[in-house]
């Protein structure tokens, strides 16, 4: 079994982002936050640090966990219209009552570096240029980096969220894979996932994918990031159980995660250089 680390690929993408950032005006990324969720705040800090490392300015606009949907929408509209801001991210979770899908429509698609605006997903589905959600793009980047063949092969995506499962299904279709999307209402998940040449787990359920879910030799990409009792992270795939069966498997942490952050930065550098 081959372990598909994302660390070297992430470093290469960060180097590209740094070169692209240096080629024009300094890119600026704005991250709108309205939560007290520790994991989410930790992630925002890690984006800000990574941005600084490649010469991208990063403003964290923290509205606090009691922000109203109107406040969040107005902030996104203001930053969308600000010519000094090139990339704009709305961090989730949002306060109860705020719809991420509705609010993301306020993000200018040209600044939508995490592909959150429904227009970006629509363009992606139509095969038009758009920023893909960084996590979905990271899965594709890993598959390409490790030269995983896709045309005609069976890909199964577990999870149908707007940020990961749905855009990823479109990206895989564009690459001529035969795509199946499984989700929480799928009956007999193992019978579906075990047909996959390429299996992507993006359900947010620790250990959901065991040895019986995986075909011998399959390439398995684990998107899940589930907090553990000791403050760490674990994936959706039971790494120990699946290792002897799979042909290749991404670790958590150190697989999809670092590539996702690096791609957010490269998207921001590209947004700053858009004509
Ligand atoms: P989500 O909760 O919005 O969606 C989860 C999806 O999984 C749903 O479509 C649901 O139908 C499906 N699902 C849930 N339980 C299932 C089950 N038992 N069997 C089959 N399908 C099931 O989550 P999300 O935002 O798409 O994130 C998914 C996971 O990816 C989470 O662990 C999240 O933390 C992680 N994530 C990682 C990164 C990264 O950079 N590595 C980025 C974003 C999300």
Automatic annotation (TrEMBL):
Domain Tetrahydrofolate dehydrogenase/cyclohydrolase catalytic: 4-114
Keyword RNA-binding applies: no
Family to which the UniProt record says this protein belongs: Belongs to the tetrahydrofolate dehydrogenase/cyclohydrolase family.
Any one GO molecular function term: methylenetetrahydrofolate dehydrogenase (NADP+) activity
Superkingdom as given in the UniProt entry: Bacteria
The protein's name in its UniProt record: Bifunctional protein FolD
Binding residue positions for NADP(+): 159-161, 225
CDD domains per the UniProt record, alphabetical: NAD_bind_m-THF_DH_Cyclohyd
Name of the encoding gene: folD
An annotated GO BP: tetrahydrofolate interconversion
Keywords: Amino-acid biosynthesis, Histidine biosynthesis, Hydrolase, Methionine biosynthesis, Multifunctional enzyme, NADP, One-carbon metabolism, Oxidoreductase, Purine biosynthesis
Residues of the Tetrahydrofolate dehydrogenase/cyclohydrolase NAD(P)-binding domain: 133-272
EC code: 1.5.1.5, 3.5.4.9
Pathway given in the UniProt record: One-carbon metabolism; tetrahydrofolate interconversion
Source species of the chain: Nonomuraea terrae
Assembly, per entry: Homodimer.
Coiled-coil ranges from the UniProt annotation: none
A GO cellular component entry from the record: cytosol
Catalytic reaction list: (6R)-5,10-methylene-5,6,7,8-tetrahydrofolate + NADP(+) = (6R)-5,10-methenyltetrahydrofolate + NADPH; (6R)-5,10-methenyltetrahydrofolate + H2O = (6R)-10-formyltetrahydrofolate + H(+)
Its biological purpose: Catalyzes the oxidation of 5,10-methylenetetrahydrofolate to 5,10-methenyltetrahydrofolate and then the hydrolysis of 5,10-methenyltetrahydrofolate to 10-formyltetrahydrofolate.
Signal sequence, renumbered to the chain: none
């Amino acid at each position: 079994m081959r372990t598909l680390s994302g660390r070297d690929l992430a470093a290469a993408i960060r180097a590209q982002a740094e070169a692209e950032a240096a080629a024009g005006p300094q890119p600026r990324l704005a991250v709108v936050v309205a939560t007290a969720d520790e994991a989410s705040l930790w992630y925002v800090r890690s984006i800000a640090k990574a941005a600084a490392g490649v010469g991208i300015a990063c403003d964290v606009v923290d509205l606090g966990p009691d922000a109203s949907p109107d406040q969040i929408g107005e902030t996104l509209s203001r930053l969308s219209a600000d010519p000094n801001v090139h990339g704009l991210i709305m961090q989730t979770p949002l306060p109860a009552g705020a719809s991420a899908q509705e609010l993301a429509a306020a993000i200018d698609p040209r600044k939508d570096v995490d592909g959150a605006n429904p227009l970006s997903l629509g363009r992606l589905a139509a095969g038009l240029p758009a920023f893909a959600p960084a996590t979905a793009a990271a899965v594709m980047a890993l598959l390409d980096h490790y030269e995983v063949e896709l045309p005609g092969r069976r890909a199964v995506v577990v999870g149908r969220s707007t940020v990961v499962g749905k855009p990823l299904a479109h990206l895989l279709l564009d690459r001529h894979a035969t795509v199946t999307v499984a989700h929480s209402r799928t009956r007999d998940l193992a019978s579906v996932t075990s047909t996959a040449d390429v299996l992507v787990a993006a359900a947010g359920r620790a250990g959901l994918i065991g040895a019986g879910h995986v075909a011998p030799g399959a390439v398995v990409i684990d998107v899940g990031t589930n907090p553990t009792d000791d403050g760490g992270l674990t994936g959706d795939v039971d790494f120990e159980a699946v290792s002897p069966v799979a042909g290749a498997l991404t670790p958590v942490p150190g697989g999809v995660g670092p590539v996702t952050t690096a791609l957010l930065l490269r998207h921001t550098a590209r947004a700053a250089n858009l004509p």
